[in-house]
Amino acid sequence: PRESSLSWKDIAWLRSITKLPLLLKGIQRGDDAVKAYEYGLQGIVISNHGGRQLDGCRSGIEILPEVTEALKQAGAGRDFQVLLDGGIRRGSDIFKALALGAHAVGVGRPSLYSLAAYGQEGVDKMFEIFMDELRTCMMLMGTRQLQI
After folding, report:
1. Which residues contact 70 (CB under 8 A, 6 or more apart)?
2. Total-model pTM
3. Per the residue annotation, which of 38, 40, 49, 131 is the catalytic one?
4. Among 1, 12, 24, 104, which is most exposed with the fewest C-beta within 10 angstroms?
5. What is the pLDDT of residues 59-107, one digit of tens each?
6. What are residue 85's DSSP bridge partners?
7. Degrees, nearest 5: CA angle 28-33-34
8. How far apart are CA 18 and CA 14, in angstroms?
C-alpha cells in the first residue's frame, strides 16, 4: 500500500530528528527537483522505482536533462547532489548519466544479478566490467578525466 499522507511538509520533521544529509528518492520532474533544493535537502535520486509503480513513466536518463536544467535555473550548485537510479546496464550508461549532470548512479539490478549468480566474485567482476567499459567509452569520446 502507498502512504498517501506524506507531503513536502514532512521534510521539516525529518530535518528536526537528524543531522544526516537528506536526499529525496523518486524525483520524476524538474519542478520537484527544484522544490527539494528549496526545502534544503542535500540532493535527490531520480528514480521511477524500476517502473514498478508506474510502468509507463519516463526512465531516469530521460528525466535527467530536465532536472539538471531546472536546478541550474534555480541556482542550485554542484554541491546539490543528483543521483540517477535505474537503467544502468553498462559503462557507457554511466558515462551518459555523468555527461548529463548526474553525480553518481545506482546499479542495483546488475549488482543483485551478479551476487545471485556468482556471489561476491560476481559483484567484483561486474564493477570491473563497468569500469573497463567506462574507460573505453571515455577514450572513444576523448574524455581524459571525469569532473563530478
Report:
1. 30, 31, 33, 34
2. 0.89
3. 49
4. 1
5. 899 999 999 999 999 999 989 999 999 899 999 999 999 999 999 999 9
6. 106
7. 145
8. 7
Q: Can you tell me the distance from the alpha carbon of 99 to that of 136, in angstroms, rounded to the nearest whole number?
A: 15
Percentage above 70 pLDDT, the chain: 94
pLDDT digits (tens, 9 = 90+) for 21-31: 999 999 999 99
Would you state the cell numbers that stand for residue 139, as one nine-digit string? Answer: 577514450
Nearest to 61 by CA among 77, 81, 83: 83
Kindly indicate the confidence band of residue 6, based on its pLDDT and cuts at 50, 70 and 90: confident
Strand order in the sheet with 43-46: 23-27, 43-46, 81-85, 104-106
Long-range CB contact pairs, 97-104, < 8 A, 24+: 97/60, 97/61, 97/64, 98/146, 98/148, 100/61, 100/64, 100/65, 100/68, 101/64, 101/65, 101/67, 101/68, 102/46, 102/64, 103/43, 103/78, 103/148, 104/148
Catalytic-residue membership of 103: no
